[in-house]
Amino acid sequence: MRKFNVNEFISLLILILILSLVSFLMITGDIYNFLSEKSAKNLNIVLIVLPILIIVQIAKVFTFNSRDDVSIKFLPIVITLVVSVLLVFRSHNIDEEVNGNNFNNVISHNAIEINHETHYILEELEERGEEFLGKYIIFTGFVYKYEGDKFILAREEMNCCAADSFIIGVKSMADEKFQEGQWVKVLGKIEYNGEYYLNINEYIKISEPKNVYF
């Protein structure tokens, strides 16, 4: 009779599903919907440890059962992980957020784009706006609130996870008055009139992106 430990196989399956889920979230960047970039980096340890555990667990599968069969008790966990993996795979759409340069204006080719890797620029604009005066910016955000004829074009930033997120953004001005909450991708120039602000030249109205956090 060939040795096959069902309990250990279920444990192996759980480890593989967890590794698949974490790997997919990390590769696609979807992890940033739940964790900040700094916190997500800690998951690299998981991507190192889990393959080692999986290799060790494979050896345990080909042993005789040393305890009562408890595989049925693990089924809810397995089913939950399988459904989670399938839902994440299905819902992922790399084209959901407007990426890259979508403006026809030749100026946009030399514009500074504020994204997940460069969102620190928003803080620099507030602290050292004179360094960006006259420069063109590309930024995707939502209309947070109006203050007179200007509004805050904003994103949410996480320190650790979604629960501690907070609003960051830049004062902006456009010819059109947007509804609060509207998501737009804009091309604008940093100008000064008593305060530094983004004067929007072009914009594209978009749906809320899948990853709303910086």
Automatic annotation (TrEMBL):
What keywords were assigned to this record? Membrane, Transmembrane, Transmembrane helix
Q: Which Pfam families match?
A: DUF1980_C (PF21537)
The DUF1980 domain, residue ranges: 103-213
The identity of this protein, by name, is: DUF1980 domain-containing protein
Species in which this protein is naturally found: Clostridium tertium
- Transmembrane stretches in the record are 12-32, 44-64, 70-89
Q: Which domain of life is it from?
A: Bacteria
